[in-house]
Design a protein that fits this description.
heterodimer, A: alpha+beta, four-stranded antiparallel β-sheet, 20 helices, B: 13 helices
Chain lengths: ~550, ~300
Amino acid sequence: MSTPLSGPGSATQTPGREPDGSPPSRSRLPRPRFRATRDDAPITVTGLAGKVLLLGLTAGVAVWAAFPLIAAEMWAGLALLAASTAGLFYLYLTRRHIPAKYLVPGTLFLIAFQVFPVLYTASTAFTNFGDGHRGGKDDAIVAIQSSSVTQVPGSAEYALSIATKGDPATGSLVFLVSDPGTGAVSVGDPGGLRKLDAADVTVATGGKVTAADGYTVLNFGQASARSKEITDLVVPTAGGALRSSGLSRAYEGKAVRVYEAGCDCVRDTETGRTWTADEEAGAFVAADGERLAQGWKVNVGLRNFTRVLTDESVSGPFLSTLIWNFAFAIGSTGGTFLLGMLIALVLHSPRMRGTNFYRVLLVLPYAMPSFAMLLAWRDMFNADFGLINNLFGLDVDWFGQAWTARLAVILVQLWLGYPYMFLVATGALQAIPRELTEATSVDGASPWQSFRAVTLPLLLVALSPLLISSFAFNFNNFNAIYLTTDGAPFPADNPTNGATDLLITYTYRLAFGGQGAQLGFAAAISLFIFAIVAVVSAVSFRRTRKQEEVYA
Amino acid sequence: MTTVKLNPTVRRRNRWFAQVGWRHLVAVLGVLFSLFPIVFVLSAALNPLGTLSTTELVPTDGVSLGNFGGLFERTAFGRWFLNSLLIAGVASFASVFLSALAAYAFSRMRFRGRRVGLLSLLLIQMFPQFLAIVAIYLIFGTITDLWPSIGFNTPWGLLLLYLGGALGVNTWLMKGFFDTLPRELDESATMDGASHAQVFFRIMLPLVAPILAVAGLLAFIGTINEFLMANVFLTSTDSKTLAVGMYGLLEGNERNNNFGIFAAGTLLTAIPTVLVFQFLQRYIVSGLTSGAVKG
């Protein structure tokens, strides 16, 4: 890797003549011979060993990945895996397709974890996917029936133990129950009830399971910490479903709400009320419009998009969020650029001593872990005992009012971002030949005039691509908001869309927030953000190019 | 300007201030702005009481290292630190390598689809990966079912995810640098019988080593600070990265009480980056700007 340029032939070269491989210099070489030499390059031992090792690794990974696919009977996935492995083997064993050998490794990751998720996002945006609309219709029916299970007087009671296969605090829960009549032990999860081998379990007197192979039985403390989940866990059985009553008893009850295929509806056997399946909404709807919480995933067309634009409870906040989003991105990019450039200009003087010393200290914010400093800033703005209020003798509830909160997050961005702009501007200033500014001062221009006419345009040409990418970055600067204000302050009537929320934090709250995930809607907003960022970037790249033609 | 006669020393001092002195003043103000939050964190880390409400800019209650001890005793900080170093280290190394491979192909080879490839990289880059977080969450739900060892709560799954963005970030930057290297170098090596792989590993990579270092460092900083995807991905205590774990330290009611150990953790997190950063600073200045012009 680190072998210097000692290869035969390189000594006779005159490097640095043509910066960019311009066609004329290339065409001087006799092309066909050049090709032939390349293809006849000898096979070296290291090259061969590397190839064998990497292809062996690929084969190993492919085999490892194949087993679960076979077990889950996902034949399409298996075919895809086989095809891509075969493709990789072909590519690296043949001597053709040289560019592809270099492009494929990165492209594979790009397709799997960027392009495919983007396409998936696009398709999710047209569905009602989210809490209550996750699976198919059959899943919804099972969930509705089993969640309506109530205890029938005189039904069987079981001794119950709560267990999990994973971590006691987070692993998914199962019920371990022993039949009071036969003593047979079964394990139950939302998929149903399965018998366990008597040899694998230890049952205490009274029927409570104390240990089971492959499961961790939760102790009382661990179980009571998750009592909400335990209450919600329903195990479907042949006659109804099994639910917990407390932490150590379970009962089998009957479903009150039953699906009837004839009318494609759910009927409540106690009240007689019916909810008919609405294929468009993906839910069971009663005559008066009441919906059951459990629905299924259906295609809703453009409804998520039109909801952003027309639903007033969404479009109003969305518009103000969008405006603030632009203000935030422009404010933090522009502010950091101005401050960074100012300090770079100040230090850029031949008579200035100690610039290295200043530089080391100035860029420290850039080298600090930004996520942690954002959290530290959040507490510096604390209204009761924050540093800012203490230091300046203020009594401001920074994150309690919209405008102070906005000011605060921009100030934090300024602190985090200006060292970067300072570094970049310093580099760009050093690249501007001193003769240019000297010439203007000979011509009698004031420092300000020469800055306006020479330095600034040249700086902007060099830095505008960076400014654009900085804008794009800040437009979606999730950390900046989530780790400081988390969108606060929120208006009293709308707890999902705060004054400092960016579109990306708003989307995140829709998708993963406490009030029930709306994944389809969140995906639609993601596409909106993408469109906005793409348009802004495209327009500004175009303007930059024009600018470069003027000044370069 | 003024008719008042000043003695030469005063006049020289005034001229010095007009030309140089005010620059020092602005620089010192800038340094103060840069430093005061860091000093605040330092003081919180050394504060023996270790709460936010008792922390001042200058520690007045004495100094103790108790918060550093508490950090390792009360939290899984060591584990988080290793996770972060592992994920950020491997991810930045691999992503720089992948984009160097692609940049070599784009810079030195002419093939069908080259322009289209370069343009689509630019386009895909505009869709930040985390905008697809919903889809990624769903995809990895399936992956966790099939292959738990690269699913949720594993460093390897998160690593793979970060590599999905590897090509977009650095390929254009690096292609710019590869373009500046004279073609004669690799062409003569090819004439002498070097294969394309030898040209890449033995000639190109050593020559672009500085930009590899810079790109690697930037990727490293970026990955250490990545919060959104890691937060969705890593929920069990032992699998967390520094960003996710330390965010949890300040959650809820513990916010005030944990501030001291949080500050101690911040300082420890900064150490590797600050060291490497100061070491590479001159590369960064030139690297960022030439990348900017080329990119």
